[in-house]
DNA sequence: CTTGACCTTGGATTAAACTCCAAGGTTTAT
DNA sequence: ATAAACCTTGGAGTTTAATCCAAGGTCAAG
């Protein structure tokens, strides 16, 4: 049996977070003291662990609510239902990674084309790329071995 | 010279988005008609393109505001200032990718251990992993060649 | 019997980037 | 002249996952 502060501390979260989870139907203490204090049982703590583990693999709170409703009524759900949720999430995560990888590639190209020196940004290749073309301009700049500097490189590894 | 609807349409965004950008200091039309309609010049349109390109490589609107203030006053900024912003963003993006990769690996393991069949979720390895252990339990399940099914696999590729 | 640590509630706020709405004014086409 | 399409403003709502606050109640120690 834990009071809210104890449970929060042992799980490394905030008491407000526990109240927030309760308000959103994820975890309610199974008892209250006469004076109204929340009292969490070992089962409640286990449920919190379930929530925290699901969060740790990337599920949102509303997805966790769905997982919990399955967990509480396993007999009426199939493996396929659970696996579908995991696979849907996996797809979501993969898509987000793909988007971020596109960002990463573009940013890397922008970074690689700029000398990063102390000279004026008036001819900075990054700004130029954002002004007037897509990143493919920078890609061409990088690909060509015959490229010239957009301004005198101040650091040795300027690739513009 | 474009009215708000025209500019929005040509750039594939919403008129509300343009008003939002204006309210947040990113892009104001250089003129208004006597009746108060926004009128965007070619320069305004170019500025919008700058914004959209910066968005496309992952910058947030407040970061774009910073980039725009450099863009408008290039002479007083150095290449290094611009490159630093790109490199900071790059680091951010890489860190987020790393987090999502951790999610992806965990979810993949969870998915791989579950048969995904129509049988009851009462012994589903995914729920078990979330109940009582971290993903390493599933990892052990997967690694061990001597593992047994948590229930009779219904689909051929059940790995539990 | 008072101090300090803990607990209660409801509601406000945060960040990001829009999106939608109401109530009304303007332009354009028929 | 009137309908359709467009524009204006201010403000509210959305999503996610909390975090913070105020005003007050409870409990254990000294
Ligand atoms: Zn350079
Ligand atoms: Zn540069
Ligand atoms: Zn199975
Ligand atoms: Zn399963």
Strand and helix layout:
2 copies of one chain form a homodimer.
Chain A: E1 2-3, H1 4-11, H2 15-23, E2 31-32, E3 38-40, H3 42-56, H4 61-71, H5 79-113, H6 125-132, H7 135-143
Antiparallel strand pairs in A: 1-3, 2-3
Helix pairs in contact in A: 5-7
Bound molecules: zinc ion (4 copies).
The first copy, chain A, binds a DNA duplex (30 and 30 nucleotides) through residues 3-5, 14-17, 19-20, 24, 33, 35-38, 60-62.
Structure notes:
Chain A is mostly helical and about 160 residues long. The first copy, chain A, folds into 2 domains: about 1-60, Multidrug-efflux Transporter Regulator, Chain: A, Domain 2; about 80-160, no CATH class. Chain A has 7 helices and 3 strands, in the order E-H-H-E-E-H-H-H-H-H. Chain A has helices at about 5-10, 15-25, 40-55, 60-70, 80-115, 125-130, 135-145, and strands at about 1-5, 30, 40. A 3-stranded antiparallel β-sheet of chain A has the order 1-3-2. The longest helix of chain A has about 35 residues, at about 80-115. The first copy, chain A, is elongated and about 70 Å long. Chains A and B meet through helix 3, helix 4, helix 5 and helix 6 of A and helix 3, helix 4, helix 5 and helix 6 of B. The complex binds zinc ion (4 copies). One zinc ion sits at the interface of chains B and A. The structure holds a DNA duplex (30 and 30 nucleotides).
């Amino acid at each position: 049996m834990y009071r809210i502060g104890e449970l929060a501390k042992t799980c490394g979260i905030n008491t407000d977070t526990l109240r927030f989870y309760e308000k959103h139907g994820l975890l309610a203490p199974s008892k209250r003291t006469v004076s109204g204090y929340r009292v969490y049982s070992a089962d409640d703590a286990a449920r919190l662990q379930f929530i925290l583990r699901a969060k740790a693999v990337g599920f949102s709170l509303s997805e966790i609510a769905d997982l919990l409703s399955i967990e509480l009524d396993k007999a009426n759900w199939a493996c396929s239902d659970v696996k579908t949720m995991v696979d849907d999430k996996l797809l979501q995560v993969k898509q987000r990674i793909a988007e971020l990888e596109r960002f990463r590639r573009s940013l890397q190209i922008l970074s690689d084309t700029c000398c990063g020196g102390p000279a004026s940004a008036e001819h900075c290749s990054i700004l130029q790329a954002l002004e007037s073309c897509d990143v493919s301009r920078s890609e061409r700049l990088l690909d060509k071995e015959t490229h010239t500097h957009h301004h005198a490189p101040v650091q040795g590894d300027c690739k513009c």
